[in-house]
Amino acid sequence: MRNTPNVRHIEAFRAVMVTGTVIGAASLMNITQPAVSRTIALLELQLGFKLFERRGRRLYPTAEAQTLYREVEKLYIGVERIGQVAQDIRYQRAGAIRVASLPALSLSVVPRALKALLDSRPAVTATVQSLPSRQISELVSTGQIDVGIVELPVSRAAIVVEPLEFDSSVVLMQRNHGLAQKQSIRFADLHEERMILLSQHSYVRYQIDDALSKAGAIPNVVIETPSSLLAGALVAAGLGISIVTAWTAESFAGGNLVTRPLEGAIAPRVAIIFPERGLISTLAKEFAKEVQNTLSQERH
Fold this sequence. Notes:
CATH superfamily of the largest domain: Periplasmic binding protein-like II
Number of domains: 3
CATH class of the largest domain: Alpha Beta
CATH topology of the largest domain: D-Maltodextrin-Binding Protein, domain 2
Number of strands: 12
Distance between the termini: 74 Å
Strand order of the largest sheet: 4-3-5-12-6
Strand content: 15-25%
Helix content: 40-55%
Order of helices and strands: HHHEEHEHHEHEEEEHEHEHEEH
Shape: rod-shaped
Largest sheet: 5 strands, mixed
């Protein structure tokens, strides 16, 4: 059984095929002409058939050499492709990112940030999920998600937390609601109003209840839900009014619904989280930057 040609033999063969001469192959490989000739002779001996016919200074490949060259080129194309992919990964032009977001931002901030990320990196792909914060934290800590957006606080270990700056919450209501005539809403104005609020385990709900209590307001809470998006849909159905982020309200405002600023500055405590520092991907960092940029543009 004949030996398999080594890489150096294949390189010399390809160099001669590309340049058509031993001189050209030697220059391409940065070795001497005799070294090229010896390498080709050894390759022919190993393969058991002739690769080139010499005519003057040029070498003409045999039919067998042409067949072999087609296979060799497949190998080199693959190697070049690997090099290109490596460069793409280095400069974040390729790869994949796994994102999970709390529902409140999954229809607004996340799509805009992803668009900015992917517009400049067409070879990058993404998977996106909308999940509760606790589940996102678990997936990020175990490395199943590259980057998550959650409501604080989070108690999961093995994650890196970067808080996000948010504008204050707004009141979402139907256009014909009595409070819609006001330019802004105070917590005292919400006394006895039919309201749809986030579930009581939410930190934002704790802030809202505290502000209402200090204002002496006791609203008529008709529905509680863990999802601010669902709260917006319930407002649209005419079941009451709600306090949501401006980003959530953006998905509903217009037509029959309006928003009004809420005095008292309740801003949601939201953060981007990553797996522990050694596992943070470059694409995850770039996505986080785009999220920050998206929020900054809205504030200004």
